[in-house]
Amino acid sequence: MSVGVLVDVGDSYRESIIETVRFFTGRSVSREEIQAYKNRGGWNDDWQLSRRICADLGVEVDYDTVVERFIRIFAGEARNGDGLIRNERWIARPGVLERLSERYGLGIYSGRRHWEIDLTLNRFAPAIRFDPRIAADDVQNLKPAPDGLLLAAAAKPGQTLWYIGDTVDDARCARAAGAGFIGIASPASPRYAESRALLFEENAAAVLDDMNQLEEVLAAG
Predict the structure, then answer these.
(1) Residue 90: enclosing H or E segment and its boundaries?
(2) Residue 183, phi then psi, degrees to nearest 5
(3) Alpha-carbon distance 165 to 124, whole Å?
(4) How far is C-alpha 162 from the geometric centre of its chain's CA atoms?
(5) pLDDT in tens for each of the 221 residues of the chain?
(6) What is the rounded CA–CA span in Å between residue 12 and residue 3?
(7) How far, CA to CA in Å, does 183 sit from each of 18, 68, 138?
(8) Residue 16 burial (CB count, 10 A)
């Protein structure tokens, strides 16, 4: 299974949701069920989603308590990267981002917090310059609100903005910010056909199997 744009988060974030829910409820939620929540929109924050799934399973948990447990599972006891984050796989093939950066400005707007972004980029792409680098810490409202992309547009005035994402919330965020949108839907991911169709319904200019197809799509205009 592959879930994500730059990083496959199937065995990190998605598995952390599963383990967090199991810790509080003693019950299991499947990755297909998690994707169903994502496809409804409004669940960009995996901490909030974990709490909601617990509630839907009949167990109410304080948000801060969910966050504490989730982080321990995902990042490790000391947030040093020895949790499930170690299972992440970098999706971009060697040279792809380097070539793209020669023609386009690369930036990041992620639902991760800065410390989470840093753990991953320092591991996989320390030499790639992403400017701006916008995290959940920087915005008042998470996706699908356009706050993060509006910050990106303000940082690069006069430039055409395209957002690459793999969720309905990414697409709605791009539309609200007046940015173009290209979707990612891996054929190996849960609910692939549904996810792909939803991204097109949300006005994606294209929906790719993974970000390695981006060079070809951008070159074609």
Answers:
(1) strand 89-90
(2) -95, 155
(3) 19
(4) 16
(5) 467 899 999 999 999 999 999 999 999 999 999 999 999 999 999 999 999 999 999 999 999 999 999 999 999 988 888 999 999 999 999 999 999 999 999 999 999 999 999 999 999 999 999 999 999 999 999 999 999 999 999 999 999 999 999 999 999 999 999 999 999 999 988 899 999 999 999 999 999 999 999 999 988 86
(6) 10
(7) 25, 31, 23
(8) 25
- Cβ contacts of 177 within 8 Å, gap of 6 or more: 146, 149, 150, 153, 161, 163
Length of the chain counted residue by residue: 221
Give dist(CA 109, CA 170) in Å, integer: 10
C-alpha closest to that of 142 among 180, 173, 174, 121: 173
With tokens 């791009």, the residue in question is 174
Inter-axis angle of helices 168-177 and 31-40, to 10 degrees? 20
Query: Tokens 């199991």 map to which residue?
Result: 22
Nearest to 45 by CA among 120, 116, 149: 116
